[in-house]
């Protein structure tokens, strides 16, 4: 993700958050201002989404608040929210309607929303604006660990071959593939060969790439600026695509994005997700593969090669080593197998 793109996304996220904030009770602004320096703009935006759903639930489903508009809530109302109300909110999140659409939340999504509500009540309790922090009485949903889905070596080969040649695509897909082959192959190779996030991938600019060191600049989550390096296979795919990109006619001079859509604009995150899904659904039909799964594939392969969880954490940009351990815990089975014969109980004669 380039600094230019990062700044644009940060500004866009902040504007969305402020728009949502206008729909919430007046005192919510104090919460956002008070937590701004400890959170990212994206976290603040998620806070706004979660609080909007929470207050919408209160006025729709809790008798004590029915007939009241969200903007009318005050601290007295907040004091009347109970732990039972919050437990009912978590149950409500299993399936609910908002603005004419039906939503469902899994345990991870419910945990995130409860985390927002906890931060919200904790903030105002610490500020002595409410009498108690009732969220302390509500346990977090139990999260069940899922196996890490990644591609095996032969599946990586199949996916790359398909993206490069388009051999198994439908006639309609092949017609598009003629125009996007170099780009799609470069994107998938980059994701598999560096483990970058999809947001970092779409945010790359042409001048972020430096082939003299086989590296590129990105802005990580939280704003850290780092250089990531890539191997010869990634370099080859990028160079091939850049030749194609250079031949695009009528490309605006101020369009710095590395990866472009057919509309000659920066490709979107959704478009990358769709192209990965298109190729992977043919190459690996039994696995649901997303850009994040390609990131997991890279992390898994890097761990197998280095056996060093700290290297994996650094390259993937995990601030907390426990995040890396959680995601690649399955790989510890290889270490346990290797350790089985390391300790000798009796010396052999």
Termini, distance in Å?
60 Å
Number of helices: 15
Structural class: mainly alpha
In the CATH hierarchy, what is the superfamily of the largest domain?
Answer: Intergrase catalytic core
Give, in order, the helices and strands: HHHHHEEHHHHEEEHHHHHH
Proportion of helical residues: 55-70%
- Rg, rounded, reads 24 Å
Mean pLDDT: 89
What is the highest CATH level, the class of the largest domain?
Mainly Alpha
Overall tally of domains: 2
Envelope shape: elongated
Overview of the molecule:
This protein has helices at 3-21, 28-35, 41-61, 75-79, 83-92, 107-126, 153-165, 171-194, 198-202, 232-246, 269-283, 291-306, 309-316, 321-327, 332-339; strands spanning 96-98, 101-103, 209-210, 215-219, 225-229. It is mostly helical and 349 residues long. The chain has two domains: 3-137, no CATH class; 153-328, hpI Integrase, Chain A, CATH 1.10.443.10. The protein has a three-stranded antiparallel beta sheet with strand order 3-4-5, with no helix packed on it. Strands 1-2 form a two-stranded antiparallel ribbon. Strand 1 (96-98) and strand 2 form a beta hairpin.
